[in-house]
Amino acid sequence: MNIILFGPPGAGKGTQSKYLVNKISGFQISTGEMLRNEINKESEIGKLIINDMNNGIFVNDEIVNKLIKEIIFDPNKKNKLIFDGYPRSINQAKHLDLLLESSNQKIDLIFFLNVNKETIINRIEKRKAIEKRSDDELNTILRRYDTYMKTTKPVLDFYSKKSNFHEIDGSLEIKEITTKIDAFINV
Ligand code: AMP
Questions:
Q1: Taking the CB of residue 1, how many other CB atoms lie within 10 A of it?
Q2: CB 55 within 8 A of CB 143
Q3: What is the count of structural domains for the chain?
Q4: Residue pLDDT, tens place only, 135-168
Q5: Does any domain span residue 69?
Q6: What is the atom index within ligand 1 of the atom nearest the CA of 147?
Q7: Would you say 174 and 126 are in contact if contact means Cβ atoms under 8 Å apart?
Q8: Which end of the chain is more exposed for a tag (fewer CB within 10 A), N or C?
């Protein structure tokens, strides 16, 4: 089973992904985490993306698409993919379709965790205190939200027409969201 978790920064995608990793023995594909790793490694990619990442701007599609390709074609991970924060643009969504098709896979479930701006700001401020992520400053959060609305909204429109798309109220408690997700998995 391949699953996409979709929603603005702070919607709880990471938390629910980790739950799903256990639940279906899956693999979390967090492009945000992969990109932060590149920066920590001080790799060539890391040097290219550090400014955009710190400013809450989306990283170039080509770089992100390249990073996920290897995972999708990894036979150990086939049909156990949990996408967290990818795709985030129409270009990425189309690229994902192509990669899945050529590896004989499909997306089984798409969950949209919907939360308003106020809830997101509160949550990210809390996370900032715990994780100390350099892109979690308030201004950056707001820029990330605006980038999300501008760039990711068309992806939402693209997926929301599909029959395997499910919108979940992301302002609910973690456990309540998990229960709702479970209802679609345990069928
Ligand atoms: P996240 O950890 O998912 O909140 O992502 C943190 C940052 O990584 C974002 O603000 C973007 O700068 C970058 N990023 C993560 N995933 C993507 C993606 N799929 N496309 C472009 N940029 C991304």
A1: 15
A2: yes
A3: 1
A4: 667 777 778 888 887 888 899 999 999 999 999 9
A5: yes
A6: 10
A7: no
A8: C
Residue 99, domain member (yes or no): yes
Return the best residue to mutate from 16, 37, 71, 135 for the ligand 1 pocket (most ligand atoms within 8 A of CB): 135
Task: Indicate whether this model's pTM tops 0.85.
Answer: yes
State pLDDT tens for residues 92-141.
999 999 999 999 999 999 999 998 888 888 877 787 777 776 666 777 77
The preferred substitution site among 29, 38, 40, 58 for testing ligand 1, maximizing ligand atoms within 8 Å of CB, is: 58
Quick check: is 103 in a domain? yes
The whole-angstrom distance between residue 104's C-alpha and the CA centroid of its chain comes to 22
Q: Atom of ligand 1 at shortest distance to CA of 92? A: 19
Any idea what the CATH number is for the domain that residue 173 is in? 3.40.50.300
Domain around 122: 3-182
Separation of alpha carbons 184 and 62, rounded Å = 33
